[in-house]
Amino acid sequence: MSGRMSDDDLFGREKEVTVLDALVAGLPEEGQALVVRGAPGIGKSALLARAARQAERSGFTVLSASGVEAETHLPFAGLYQLTRTMLDRVPRLPPVQAEALLGAFGMAAPPPAGQPPQLFLIALATLDLLSEAAGRAPVLLVVDDAQWLDSPTLDVLAFMARRLGAEPLGMLFGVRDGHPTPLDTLGLRELRLPPLTPGDAGALLDAVEPGLDPPLRHRVLDAAAGNPLAVIELPAALRRQGAAAAALTSSAVPLTARLEQTFASRLSDLPTDTRSVLLVAASDDEGALGEVLAAASVLAGFDVAPDSVSPAVELGLVTVDEYRIRFCHPLVRSAVLQSASLTERLTAHSALAAVLDGQPDRQIWHRAAASGRRDESVAAELDRTAARAEERGAPAVALAALERSIALGELPSHTAKRLLKAAGLALELGRADQASALLHRVAPLKLDVLERAQTVLLREGLETDVSNNVPRLRLLIATAEEAADAGDPGLALRLLRTAARRCWWSDPGRAMRERVVAAAERLPVPELHPELVFVLAGAAPLERGATVIERFERLESEGGYDALAAATLGTAATMMGGYDHAAGFLRHAAAGLRAQGRLWLLAQTLVSLSFVSAHTVDWESGLPSVAEAARLAEENAQPRWLTGALIAKAQLSAVRGELETARAAVERAERGVIAVANPSNLAYVQITRGLIALAAGRHAEAFGCVWRVFDPADPAHHPYLQFIAIPVLAEAAVREEDRTAARAALSRLDGASAATTARLIRTNLSFAHALLADDEDAEAAFRAALGLDLSRDPFTRARLLLAHGTWLRRRRRVMESRAPLRIARECFASLGAEPWHERAGQELRSAGERGDQSSPADWDLLTPQELQIAQLAATGLSNREIGQQLYLSHRTIGAHLYRIYPKLGITSRGQLRERLRLDD
């Protein structure tokens, strides 16, 4: 009897079959993904196979793959299984996607040195490839034993599962219980297979073993415990085992082990050459018949003929075609390996390595598996394998190769380099515990200067305490100076960048901040080096503010910086109040990072851009940036940046008057701040809570929230974000005691900011002076503030006008008050700042003038993602070009546009530009 069930064996699975049939039937209308989960032998494979046949009968394209434990270290091996029949269509993809996908399979050159891994380009290429196929006929991906797919393939499949949308593309995954995968976090529908009921198990047993003696029948059903594979396999095994049958029915032995034993019991009667073939096939990752026979011949010492497999086929252990040998169940594979001795297993891997010339990655993994001792030559090859995996966008595979290299290496001088490289990859993958363990192994080793510096930098990546830690800053500065003296100014600058970020988070005092700046300026790097500018902006945002602004202006005029540099400069600009410069750098960075597939960094960049947009109340840029940043941060497990996106969303929602949305977002953000210690985000949370309270007209509550940013004893205190918070504090200061406290805080900020020329800081301070001025000084303060260039700060200007008009009306200068109030009202209406718009209308009514009735802007009719797609389509980009930018398929873009047109009252793409007024 075959180890894999057929349709006739699906007793008791009527509900599960109905679910899969419904999924297949619904694919032409909507993409769907489903995880079928259960224990070994519970029937996952049979259900998946039935769904595949059903789809094929319906005219679908069915692509299948099966995970194998031996393949988990081969990047994109599973993806190649899925797409190998479609590779002739790859040249029709955009060239950058085609190169990335073929490079993943080793069929094209990897990206040049210094260029980023291309995992997301590979994923987008796969999505586009399958989307094209789905345009002809629905496509169903069937992936069995997904828990054993290689990590990069699972990442690509997770990327696709998030973006199915309207694609006629289905995904079915079989996953064994107890094996976590990246699919677990996606919220996919799950079909869990329970054991068969006693009645269904009995019906299955009667179908496969009719007329079984009642005592044996009872023992089988009791031992099988509702597992269909056990019901099928145990009867014959019990008959063969005789005295050893008790072990097969012992409840003390796990069912999986008992099933392995049933398969192992068949092996002893097989011919020697057949057992050699099975052992090689179980040790192999491809199952290519010619390759297995060649290695089996090496193992046996004579030519092994193809018909040597026949006895195993007759026993239902494997299936064979002219190209491939497959085990009928993963437990057969594990039974073959378990029944072999250690020496036999090592020899099988050695035989495979001997026949895999021209396949260096597979060959070295088998050489490593065959090595029963340390071998520096194997370790060195694994280092090269790790480098190739990293180039191809597979850092998890690179990390596994390095860990094996560490275990096999003989030279202590190489161990530290391997450990440090592996720790860096673990940090990149978000595996902090693994990185910490690797660095712990570095501690007792003899390190050179640069290795010690790398260790300090990596440990900083693990550090969660970002409070004022002066000893830590001293270590970073001293280590940077040592790295510079050792000839690596780049490493020194990265250490000082980390120190500058600590200074920004929590002020260690001017002397220590000046030490960081001085150490950076002694390095032999150009003064416009983006990381040097970052150090100045982070460590001395006020004292060196004028210098940093001047360098921003030079960089803007000279250009020539890449996406990474632009991201660094944009972050630096937001740290020191240069929002007007930040916007340009961040938009440049976002475009470049999109093109390069660096979605981790893109999420961070979009969060920073969202904060800039929230400050200027730029909905058309801010809403799409916030939505995309949140989506990417969730996809890439970046909790800190998800928190930032939620804060920006809350700010934008508050200004729009969507207070429930704002509160929900900031509450979720606050939970993230607690989970991921970050003082800047905690300060932003309080500023945002203050803005929400202001929008609701609760001034005392707003003041209490924002005052925490100014209180040195409060965890939300932040020395530099006070300059962002001061306008909210000033607007909230209605009670006299609050105004007194706010004036004192403003005075301190005036003194601290004397050296900076950052326009945002100057604007915010002038705004606060106008709102907090005594009656005798208010007129001049308002005139001074309104005399600034506020063209890039329309929300600040409108709030100033509202405050000025209100002040005039309350001084009974009613006629004078109407003009600023009218302008403020119109500005708030155009910005969509509904609470402030209503407030301006109330003031105008109090001044004897009726309010207006405003209609929603066109962007207000669309979701953030629809707005982003509409904006891109209005610039003339095709659906495919838009999809490449947003990492969605072109069919999904088309479906969005189909919904957008009726919302905007238009019928064609050509009307978008005029409807969205992009030329305004």
Automatic annotation (TrEMBL):
Signal peptide: none annotated. It comes from the Bacteria. Keywords: ATP-binding, Nucleotide-binding. InterPro entries: AAA_16, P-loop_NTPase, Sig_transdc_resp-reg_C-effctor, TPR-like_helical_dom_sf, Tscrpt_reg_LuxR_C, WH-like_DNA-bd_sf. It comes from Streptomyces cuspidosporus. This is LuxR family transcriptional regulator. Residues 855-920 form the HTH luxR-type domain. PANTHER family: TESTICULAR SOLUBLE ADENYLYL CYCLASE (PTHR16305), TRANSCRIPTIONAL ACTIVATOR DOMAIN (PTHR16305:SF35).
